[in-house]
Every structure is written in structure tokens, then in C-alpha cells.
Hints:
The protein is an alpha/beta fold.
Amino acid sequence: MQRGYxxxxxxxxxxxxxxxxxxxxxxxxxxxxxxxxxxxxSDGQIGRMLRDMLAGRLPAVENAAMALLFAxxxxxxxxxxxEPAIARGAIVVTDRYYHSSLAYQGSNEDREWILAINGRARxxxxxIVLEVSPxxxxxxxxxxQRPEELYDxxxxxxxxxxxxxxxxxxxxxxxxxxxxxxARSMNELAAEILRLAWETCxx
Length: 203
């Protein structure tokens, strides 16, 4: 049986994480490699509640409580979906993971505490951060006619972008983290992400 891997695609809202995660899974599958696409918040019970909070369908709770809910959803997501897929030998590609908690909730909380409450989460084999300016990301969301969500205000997105830039310090040398210019063309980015994924899974 092939070994399973966990690859994470990260970035601010509008960076292209959803598109690139899907393209990576499609590219892996065309080679015959087992690949599994997932996302956070997950499609589980806690994840659905978080999506309702982000969309304004439910009132959001304060920042520390949000961080705890995201950590709880992550624990459920790992147990219910990610770990079983990895055990089957799949390359699991997730659109967001605990790095989002460090960047989003960590903009107003101690990042060491965020790391601590996610301490049991499996470390990714590769994390790719797509870096774009908050202004470019906002223009993309507008062009896609996305409804505004909880963290979409430009001031918040600027803090979150700073949080992503601080990720290298936050995760230290615990894992492989690569930052790519998310303003590049989708095809160029997809090719680079696929190269990094194969490099990781061949190691």
C-alpha cells in the first residue's frame, strides 16, 4: 500500500486556496494517485455550525471561543475524514488547517495558546501559503460576487495577512511551509503546487 500524506493550502479569503486545492487533487488523480479533497471548516456537525457563524446565519461567539470551536472541528475532521483517508494511502489535500487559526484567531489571541489547543493535530507533510494583498483578495471576492463573511473587512484581512507572514516563526522548524505568490496566473501556480506536492510525496 502507498503511504498517505497531508498537504495543506492556505491563504487569506480570495487567495485562491479552494481553486488550487481542487486543481491539485484533480492533477494527482489523473496520474492514478489516490487523492482526497477536503476543507475547513469541515462538513461535519461543528464545521457546519462554524460556516453558519462565518456567513452570519448564526451569531458568532467571541474570538477565544471561536478558536476553540475551530480546534474542536479540526479534531473531529481528523478522526472522521483525514486520518482514515491517509490510512488508505491517499494524498489528502485540505483547503485550510490549523494555520488558519493561527492567522485568523491568532491576530487577537496568543499564538502559543492557539498552537497548544491544536497540539494533537497531525502535522502536515507540506503547507503552501498563497500570498496576495488584502486589496487584491477583496477585488477577487467582489468579482465572484461572494457575500461578505465574518472576517472579510479589509482591516481584518490586513491583520490576517500579517498573521500568515508570521507563520514561519509560529510553526518554527516543525514542518515544511512554502509561501508562493498568489498573484501569479492560476496555471503557473497549479504547476508549481503540483511540483511541490510530488517532491514531498517522493521524499
